[in-house]
Amino acid sequence: AALQVVAQATATLPPIKAAAAAAEVPAAAPVSTASPTAPAAATSTPTATAMPLPTTTPLPTTTEVILTAEILLESSLFSQPDAGSAERDIVRVGETVRVLGQGFMGQWLYVRSLDGAEGYVYGERVAFAGDPAALPTVVPPTSTPAACPNGQCARLTLDAYPLLGSSCEGTTISRTVYMRGHGGNQVYSYFWNGETLKAEVRDNGFSFTVDNSMGMPVIGMAKVSSGDGQSVELELYISDFSCD
Fold this sequence. Notes:
This protein is mostly beta strands. It is built from 2 helices and 16 strands.
């Protein structure tokens, strides 16, 4: 009986679990090693604003009026409204010329030919449907004055007088008046009662007619000017308008 007790006393106890003996330690929370990121700044996208385009005001359009005339008789185009001046071109019968203006004296038109030459043509030698009086007056350019000796021009003087005799046509009686300048630079322009009769005559005289239908004496003002700027006037008394 004693041996049985000992046998029981040495009986092997079941093993104790280590997990039960050790206190459970909670796992530490993971630590992030990444650098902190700053919050992104808010950005705004600009909105394009359409700018109004500048407006332009259209200019008024003008239509150039081209006036023409037809040549009725073969004629010369002259540098002055005077058949004694230099000839620039010849226009033929039936040719069309462009009318640019009127002459500053007489019935002359200033035209341009098909060849591009410009000059004066006598109005009665062309067919022009317009009104010559409405055209601009074209004055020929002044030529270079002749030089005076030593730069000193002589004093300008004027001879002006009616020639002997008269001519009659119907009831109109005409007398011829002669004018001639002296001195100046020997380039003269002649006038009667303020109207240009002949321009830029070189060292030469000039004559014209005075018409009278009443037979009474006529008083007029003759004038000459020279290219150096001098001018002289002379009053004329013209009588003896008769056909006897």
